[in-house]
Design goal:
Elements: E1 2-7, H1 12-23, E2 28-32, H2 35-45, E3 49-53, H3 59-71, E4 75-81, H4 97-125, E5 128-132, H5 145-164, E6 171-177, H6 185-189, H7 194-199, H8 209-221, E7 230-233
Parallel strand pairs: 1-2, 1-4, 2-3, 4-5, 5-6, 6-7
Helix pairs in contact: 1-8, 4-5
């Protein structure tokens, strides 16, 4: 049974991506730490959705989950590296280094380990890797320090994978959203402060999880001879800032 593996599937982008792909006729493996939420999603999506408990920041958890899928006869033909997080919005000199470590472990080590484990199968299947990056990987902002750096890593990792996988039929895309509401992203960043998180989106026409999900499905639906290297998207209410000038 060939399937698309979506990480971070319990909420936000990941949950919406699972919904959209299943609606389009794909079989989807949804991976996340919170298995209870995956079971609820299974009740909604039915037989085309396979829940698997996985913590991408824990290599042993990733290895165990992939072993379980192999035992079930599930073959991964597509990978959506969606799991990731931001913690804090402090300037670098004021940030908690423990937060930096968590972001690096999850957003860099986690996605690279999972991808590395699946590459032989993806080559056999002439599969597709879609990484969910961010405009933060291109445009710096105060407090974005390590989060932005991890997304810059993901952008370059995607391009380098593309270079190495040339000739295998494996496609690689980096989808880079801008301001996005309707997820737990900012609540996690502000460590449970939902009011502060909501204030970021008040009065904006932010992207929604369904918007990103439609783009992921569209990418999978492109003919095999087309590779979208990068797809950067912002809401119309967001644009570029002038360069900051500090005056003494």
């Amino acid at each position: 049974m060939t399937s698309i593996l979506v990480t971070g599937a319990s909420a936000g982008f990941g949950r919406a991506i699972c919904h959209d792909l299943v609606s389009a006729g794909y079989t989807v493996v949804g991976a996340a730490r919170r298995f209870d939420k995956l079971q609820s999603l299974k009740a909604e999506l039915g037989e085309r959705f396979i829940p698997i408990q996985m913590d991408v920041s824990d290599k042993a958890s990733v290895t165990a989950a992939l072993s379980e899928l192999r035992e079930q006869g599930v073959v991964i033909s597509g990978l959506v590296n969606n799991a990731g997080l931001a913690l804090g919005l402090d300037k670098a000199q004021e940030a908690d280094f423990a937060d930096w470590e968590v972001m690096i472990t999850t957003n860099v080590v986690g996605i690279t380990y999972l991808t590395h484990q699946l590459l032989p199968t993806l080559v056999e299947q002439k599969g597709y890797i879609i990484n969910i990056g961010s405009i933060a990987g291109t445009y710096p902002y105060p407090g974005g320090n390590i989060y932005g750096a991890t997304k810059a890593f993901m952008k370059q990792f995607s391009l380098n994978l593309r270079a190495d996988l040339s000739g295998t039929g494996v496609r690689v895309s980096n989808l880079e959203p801008g301001l996005s509401g309707g997820t737990e992203f900012s609540t996690v960043r502000f460590k449970g402060d939902a009011q502060r998180a909501q204030e970021l989106y008040d009065g904006t026409n932010s992207l929604q999880p369904e918007d990103i999900a439609h783009m992921v499905t569209w990418l999978f639906q492109q003919p095999p001879h087309i590779n979208i290297n990068r797809l950067e998207v912002m809401p119309t209410s967001q644009s570029f800032s002038p360069l900051a000038v500090y005056r003494q």
